[in-house]
Write a structure and sequence with these properties.
The chain is mainly alpha-helical. It has one domain. The longest helix is centred in the C-terminal third of the chain and has 35 residues.
Amino acid sequence: MAVYGQQPQGAAGRPDGVDARVLWSGGAATALVVALIALVGVVVFRGVFGIPILAPEGEGVWGDVSTVWFMAVAALAALLAVALVHLLLLGTPRALSFFSWIVGLATVVAGVAPFVTDAALASKLASALINVIIGFAILGLVSGVARSAVARAVRNV
């Protein structure tokens, strides 16, 4: 019997199974959430505070990146995270620990990346904050979905 808060595991320290339908439907929902986080971030910082991010007038922090493109990249990042956690769950002991480290480090990179541009400090800070919030959302939501997918698979055995 599994202890509360731990994923049920087989003899090799891996989960006994993964309900792919639950994992990928939760991943799709996560993709929608992070796309909306990107949109809200752009609206708040550019629209409310007047901080030029993405593509204000002419060239933005990331060249001519549009808000829709930013949303699509955030959604794609979430789907890539789901693919990663699915692979890890199928063949890696302590899969969610490795997943947390990988996504955590990717979030650090995304948070630091705006600071290598020539943008104004306010633009850098706003972009970094949006990126970090997206990373945390992906980490939390996909980890939770993965736990649910493993628990569902174990209950259905």
